[in-house]
Amino acid sequence: MVFGWTTVFFKTRQLGYLNQLRTISQTAYTHPSSSAAFSKLSSEDISYLKGIVTPRGVVEEKEALEPFNTDWIGKYKGNTSLALKPSCTDQVSQILQFCYEKKLPIVPQGGNTGLVGGSVPVFDEIVLNLGNMNRIRDFDSKSGIVTCEAGVVLETLSNFVNEQGYTFPLDLGAKGSCQIGGNLATNAGGTRFLRYGSLHGSTLGLEVVLSNGKVLNMLSSLRKDNTGYHLPHLFIGSEGTLGVITAASICCPKKCRSVHTALLGVESFDKVTELLVRCKDEVGEILSAFEFMDRNAVQLATKLLSHVRDPFSSTFPFYVLIETSGSNENHDMEKLEKFLESCYSADWISDAVLAQDQSQMNQLWTLRESMPEAVNRSGKYIFKYDLSIPLEHFYDLVSEMRSRLADYTCQVVSWGHIGDCNLHLNISSSDSNESLSNLIEPYVYEWTRAHGGSISAEHGVGRVKSKYLSMSKDKQVIDLMKQMKQLLDPHGILNPYKIFSKEE
Amino acid sequence: MKVLVTVKRVVDYAVKVRVKPDGSGVDLSNTKMSMNPFCEIAVEEAVRLKEAKVASEVIVASIGPSQSSEQIRTALAMGADRGIHVEVEKELPPLVISRALKSIVLKEKPSLVILGKQAIDDDCNQTGQMLAQFLDWPQGTFASKVKVVGEKLQVTREVDRGLETLELRLPAVVTCDLRLNEPRYATLPNIMKAKKKPIEKLGLKDLNCEPSYGLQTLSIFEPPKRQGGNKVESVAELIEKLRNEAKVI
């Protein structure tokens, strides 16, 4: 392979003894009520663990541990005294084997950009950060299959496959910081979901280290392999609670030669949904993204972030960002222009801008991708919701929340992957107000359940939504999940206090 | 007054170009092409002059391949009134371009010609200056601010030692620098209107120009790859490396 990365040939580490895993039968995972269920980290433990990762893989100093202990929103702060940064799967295996025996809890961590408090400790769990495992092990230029370690930053991976003439099937605003291991553990959706589907579809295989240190090599370069249970899928979306993902093989689609982006101004939400239907009908085969933003969100972003620009001279209640990706520049541009012109003549859209070059395209995407950051800066207390809502009710919740909170000084903004019926509702306030908080939760989740939606479309459950899990899943389903957790992590050391809450 | 603005079709600024294996040029197959960013700024300035009712008409001209008409359409969508497309097969050097532009100027009689300061593919930064010389007109290059005051033009130029403001008699030539303005997006209603605006097609012969190629490109190659940096452990090691490896002390 002539691309300069050392190909690491990984040796499966066979442990010297069989691991007896407890039979599932009656015992199911019970959420530890506190860190008293685990051992405390002793100085001998620390020495041993430091010995595994060598000095470059240890973070111990309190100030240096801040970013490992704090989530991206700044809302959740743990109290770990040790973060380990292994540089290969073998080290991860040794660490987990030790922690399993000693009953030391671990938080697997990637780029720490998660939004549900799932990637930071709750108490003093050891942080197992995969950031140093950032090698791209292999790339097959005929099939587009890339094999890489969990700590590769998404943007790096995306740029790499781009150079080879392929597109990475996942894209999200946090790409400069998030790592592919974390993306997989979350089953991140992103802006290309509409076109390329979920990570479950693109991922061909995983290399996972189990709670007892055993390494499961399920990496594959085969598109089809129906030989037994599809175990990798269990770990995708498991949020680090069933095993630590250390490497993945992902199939990438070929890069499209012609990409076009347009931002549309729309007067009503009914018109937005009509546009979505028409878009799928008329440009469906080249459509690669369909995102929506409301006026409040756009105004917030342009007001608080100097690098964000609104291309229109007037504002609209709704904005839709469309992207097409195809193989023929002229054909695609003609198709898109024709579609936009017909929508304009029929008054489905009030105005539109079509990016004329790559810089304008980047600027339009910056507007959309800057929203989480804008919300972060808009107030000290932020309530973030990531919901799947059927299209016919999609915007109703936002309108309801605005009237419900009319007496409070707060921002209610929304945007989302409307093509996937995924709403991102964000409420921010400068004042800490319990009555405001009580008006928001659990109402948002109850409303979502009543309308047949999901309380977490793509962000996962983490710590934030664990007590609402039953709003989206039946008890029998949750019970089976807990039994599987008990099977794969009988000592409960992998990311405890996440997904399942005490109340469940 | 009439304003003439020029646009060039170049490789998109965000694209990473590759040199052809035989070193004869840059590989443009399947490469995204766009309007030269400085030309975009020039068009924006011209349209603003029209909106301020200082300019009565904005004509956009491009000398390039048949696909340059796309860039002319974009300029029309930004607000120019009509276009002139001089279709040529091979890229011409600034000397020939400025001669052709002179013919267009003599034909259209604008009071102001606005160009981008340079094209991002060749970085020549010559056409505006040569055109001014051929027309014997005053020039304000690297403009970061343009203001029409009666019959005169005030141009603020960004130069190495700071900002310099000149006053020019009209007619004049202005070339635009990055901070002059932020170009607008082409909105859909304007894109639709632009399709109906006229584009005149001309050949070099119509302008009494000969495509003479006084310069010949011998080879094109990529700059040497950047070497990785080294972290040093001590000042002594730094000095040793500066002396023996980098050979700068």
From TrEMBL, chain A:
Entry keywords, A to Z: FAD, Flavoprotein, Oxidoreductase
Domain FAD-binding PCMH-type intervals: 76-255
Instruction: Report the cofactors.
Output: FAD
Give the EC number: 1.1.2.4
Is Oxidoreductase given among the entry's keywords?
yes
Molecular functions (GO terms): D-lactate dehydrogenase (cytochrome) activity; FAD binding
Looking at the Swiss-Prot or TrEMBL record, what is one Pfam family this protein matches? FAD-oxidase_C
Q: Name one GO cellular component term.
A: mitochondrion
Q: Give the EC class as a word.
A: oxidoreductase
Family in the record? Belongs to the FAD-binding oxidoreductase/transferase type 4 family.
Q: What is this protein called?
A: D-lactate dehydrogenase (Cytochrome)
**Taxonomic source organism:** Galdieria sulphuraria
UniProtKB/TrEMBL annotation, chain B:
Give residue ranges for domain Electron transfer flavoprotein alpha/beta-subunit N-terminal.
23-211
Sorted keywords for this record are: Electron transport, Mitochondrion, Transport
GO biological-process terms attached to the record? amino acid catabolic process; fatty acid beta-oxidation using acyl-CoA dehydrogenase
What Pfam families has UniProt attached to this entry?
ETF
> GO MF terms on file?
electron transfer activity
Q: Which GO terms describe its cellular component?
A: mitochondrial matrix
What's the main place this protein lives?
mitochondrion
Q: List the subcellular locations.
A: Mitochondrion matrix
What InterPro entries does UniProt report for this protein, alphabetically?
A: ETF_a/b_N, ETF_b, ETF_beta_N, Rossmann-like_a/b/a_fold
Keyword Mitochondrion attached: yes
Protein role: The electron transfer flavoprotein serves as a specific electron acceptor for several dehydrogenases, including five acyl-CoA dehydrogenases, glutaryl-CoA and sarcosine dehydrogenase. It transfers the electrons to the main mitochondrial respiratory chain via ETF-ubiquinone oxidoreductase (ETF dehydrogenase).
Family that this chain belongs to: Belongs to the ETF beta-subunit/FixA family.
> What subunit structure does UniProt give?
Heterodimer of an alpha and a beta subunit.
UniProt name for this protein: Electron transfer flavoprotein subunit beta
